[in-house]
Queue: 2 jobs
Job 1
Amino acid sequence: MKSKITLLAILAITLVGTGVAFGDSSTGSVSLKAEVTSIAELTLGSAVIDFPATNPSTVSIPGSATTTVTANVRTGSTGTPASLVAVGTNLTSASDTILISNVTSSYTGDAGFFTTPGTPIAMATTPVTVGSGNTSGSWTGAFTWALANSWTYANGSYTATISYTLTAP
Amino acid sequence: MKARKTLLSIAITLALAPGAILGPASIKAAGPPGVQLFVTPNKITFRMDPPPSTATCEVTIQVIAPGRTPWRLTLLAQGPLQSQKGSQIPASRITWKGSPGHVFSDGILSDKHPQLLGRGQGSKVGMVRFLLKNDWGLAAGRFNQKFIFDLSSP
């Protein structure tokens, strides 16, 4: 009887010693994948900017409103950056034209995505980069406008369109 | 005396046997009944729509514990979600909601300390919904990581 007890005791110790799971623990794993796609969302505040008639001696005519641009971009941290470009048409009044390059916009706000705060950017009929970057985020900037004045402009009511395109590759 | 030596010899042989194969009866005799964990599916994918939507995934958890055997279930991420381009999403951005609530609790994922996901007695089945908060600050890419569920019974 004593021998039997000894055997059971040793056997019990043996089971513990060999590390055999007694079933008191169990693990499982789940592999997780998150697919974060590139997205671009653009919102423009003011859709109409007026430049009132001013004595041509006034060198620069400020625009009637500030345009708030919100660029929501989700882009990769490396590779081709997200970009915001503006393309304009020349200002026209009947057969008269004022080149769109006489219109400038200046961004005020934090650096990060929009191009060089405080530096006027001349519009063009070809794409002009207004913002660029590899950092995802929601970027908001205020753009003020100015039209270079000149005695050479013909009388008239001129209109032009500037289109913004935000791309997240 | 001889019988005792024989028994001792058998015991020592069993003790030294590498990778000893023990039958169920031996396990039952030696320790408490086992607990088992089943998590399905074992692969989940968050599809991140435009913000501010929150991506969700669900898993079913089944704990098998004989009788009223108490158990405790924890969850640990093996690190932040990682993309091939080197971007990361912190594990703590993932939260979960467990049901039924009296067994499986809500929580925030960690890759440093196991977080309590549930506790109970006896066999239970529940569901855990994982939520990955979305915003514009996330870098684009395909992110991967692994969760480890650890079920233990005293």
Job 2
Amino acid sequence: MFGKLTWDAIPFHEPIPLITSIVVLLAVAAIAAWITRNRWWSYLWDEYITSTDHKKIGIMYIVLGLVMLVRGFADAIMMRAQQSLAIGASQGYLPPEHYNQIFSAHGTIMIFFVAMPLVIGFMNFVVPLQLGVRDVAFPTMNNVSFWLTASGALLVNLSLFIGEFARTGWLAFPPLSEKAFSPGVGVDYYLVALQVSGVGTLLTGVNFVTTILKIRAPGMSYLRMPVFCWTALASNLLIIAAFPVLTATLALLMLDRYLGFHFFTNDGGGNSMLYMNLIWVWGHPEVYILVLPAFGIYSEVVSTFSGKPLFGYRSMVFATLAICIISFMVWLHHFFTMGAGADVNAVFGIASMIIGVPTGVKIYNWLFTMYGGRVRFTVPMHYAIGFMLTFVIGGLTGVLLAIPPVDFIVHNSLFLVAHFHQVIIGGVVFAIMAAYTYWFPKAFGFTLDERLGKAVFWCWFIGFHLAFMPLYVLGFWGATRRMQHIPDASWAPWLNVAFVGAAIIGLGIALTVVQLLYSIKTRDQRIDITGDPWDGRTLEWLTLSPPPHYNFAVLPDVHGEEAYWTRKQTAIKQDQLIKEPDYQPIEMPLNTPTGVIVAFFASVCGFAVIWYIWWLAILGLVGAFAVMVWYAWRDEHEHIIPIEEVRANARERRRIRMEHLHNLSQSV
Amino acid sequence: MSTASEAPAVGLTHLGSEDTGLGHRGPASKSIVVPYGFWLFILSDMVLFSALFATYASLVRATDGGPTTNQLFDRNLVAIETLALLVSSFVCGLAMIAAKRKNMLWTQGWLLVTGLLGVVFLSIEIYEFSSMISEGAGPQRSAFLSSFFTLVGCHGAHVTCGLLWIGTMMAQIWAKGFRQDIMRRLLCLSVFWHALDIIWVAIFTIVYLIGTLP
Amino acid sequence: MSEHEGELHNVAPGEPHDNMLSETLSYVIGLGLALLLTGISFWVASTSILWGPGVATGLVVLAIAQMGVHLVFFLHITSGPDNTNNVLALAFGVLIVFLVMIGTIWIMAHMNANMMPGPAMTNLMIQRG
């Protein structure tokens, strides 16, 4: 009746997961009670949960990512603590079975449920605004994508309360991840969660490529798009290209585990090396899916806060597309040591070095953008400069690792761990923090507190270096990754420094929360009246903050690169706005509960598959299909925003802008 | 659909242009955007199959001392399957032509024939699978068989989803007529169905023909 | 509307199309060509007239031709300017498919060759099989 599910699944005998579960459940209950008391459920349902508005969906993704960051970080600090304690005779406080789950959960959560949602969230919020349009190509599918991602996150977190998580690392290599060696539900949680959220991500890829190629403001040809949109295009092309391979590979492992197939087993002719190959065919483009939009964020931030157009726009575009294509030709560098031989290793090693070149081009372009500009050292600019320093070193260690003989020595050592954390934190995390500060006023109508923001930056910057620089040294000394017990006492000082670094990062995360709460409390001091708090250059700054549901009363006519900047300078010079356009009523897509209900059934089905409750799994599938058919049966797809509302909002915006214009011309 | 009697409302893509995507005339219309998005999805599905093909190619000789391709595959059955799917693709095209002319009878008729030919295809495939399994050549026997059943079975699963979709579309057309959004879905369905035949060309060539060369 | 693009029929669905004949003809020709190519494939695979090693290559070429027939006659992918985005997307897809398949086959062939178990182990595995 309930498959493998019994009361034993609840970790009554393990204090850490038990206490964590209780605390989390209490926290969730408290938040639910707070929402209920304030009668916010219907607001949340109408404004966010069923919203097809890319801005709202973007915000939900970012909230998901930030919440999961706390969980992923908790795993990290636990690992650092364990490695500082478990030296010599001591076994620390985490037995190996538990430690292995923690590093597996840490990686899985950070990549799939922190970095991906955050990057996708920012692409969601920003791209349609920058393209000067009202929404993405498929708004309802966008909503479904988010909720499927959330469903995956839910399943991963459920593993803490009910059952266990995988102990196989964030990529679940066979044969360890096969039934014979991982008979529990942990690997199944991992597989099912990623399959569900993988569907959501693939749909996002389709959505955004279609949007960027087919839905842009009049006059916005490809070479007039902001660079962030180019990087979003490249990233989403990679999603379309890579995620099907992940789906296929994880499905093969599921077939092995559930139906006794022999793809990767030791017996029956299986070949576990094939898994490695396929998973990295996905895995390498995945990191570029994350880092390309990050590069786009830096392009926006650096040009805005240098007061100059981005240097070398065309070379940026070319470099982005080059990285996109080459990223699909380097995947073997993740398993140089597996035995493909010198010829194969050489080809992929050279390709891995070549991919550093367009990245270098980008760095030079950012530097040249800053050169000769009037640089404002705002919080986003701090992150941009921090990125340039940090990421370059991370990239250099990457090029080092791209040399097969070197890699043979440091493969799977802490050197590797330091490298990939350096590029991900220096590249992706810093970009997310910059983007968070940069676009927060557009989303919520007020800026975040600057001083606290700078404190957060320094915590991240100093904390990161303290946490990971020692790992390079330890890697050279032979320290392997994922060690539950440290065999060499001389490593202790370095690991302790790393622990301090992690703690400082933790402080940074805590300060981020403080910054948010404080900024909300004192928001009246930092209201974004004009909608353009940073003197921006791209079209999202044309709108008020937050923009109306439909973004623009009339889609802006684009005449050159930096559409908004030219328009703004013309307005300042002529001391008047453009002629008031003809308004029309606007059709916008309706809200829909399809996404959240499909995700509900996907979660039910997923949970049932994990615990072998077959009748429930079928029910879940049928439910999801039924919801889709029900959705397909509706007759009304849009609602109309009346012309009076459009006109009133637009005139209010124009009035505020005129006032701002007068202030500007008077101060000149 | 939206009420047509109001002043022309400017939506996301509704009154957009039919332009070539160079962006000069603003967002493209839904009749362009939807099929393009679906085309991208089909390409992602092709990548999925390429991973399965790559797996098959890597494991085709990993028979673990068990049955091999030559011992298992019946080219005559494959020929019938191929014929059924190919003709169903053709007939699906005829259904689209009828739908454009809003001819309920012929549209439903050709869609039905498409579906029936799909059922023929699936029946043969199920027969093939079950006889292999009863001979002890099931997917658990060896890595080669695992990859065979998965590759061909995944295609079969796609055909099954296509049949469900055909049924749903037939019901929708019956209930709501040839509305614009339903026409777009029909177009996507026909793209899907044709793509399935393209994958089948790869399967019968690589798995059944090349796989059983002397 | 004279210029229609980006979608997989030359005319947007639901619009009156004068040329029912040409559309039907497209499908008929496509079916005919596909049947022909399929028949040739089956014949090539079973005949002994052709040089052995060339048969596999020939079959692959025939398969690609069949896919082309499907793309052109059933999916109406043409090289017209209004189809550019579709063709580019297809090219991207084909590139990825090619990289995944050829890359995997090349890598796995090398892996298997280099990482084959030694004679004693192989012997053991054969016995168990």
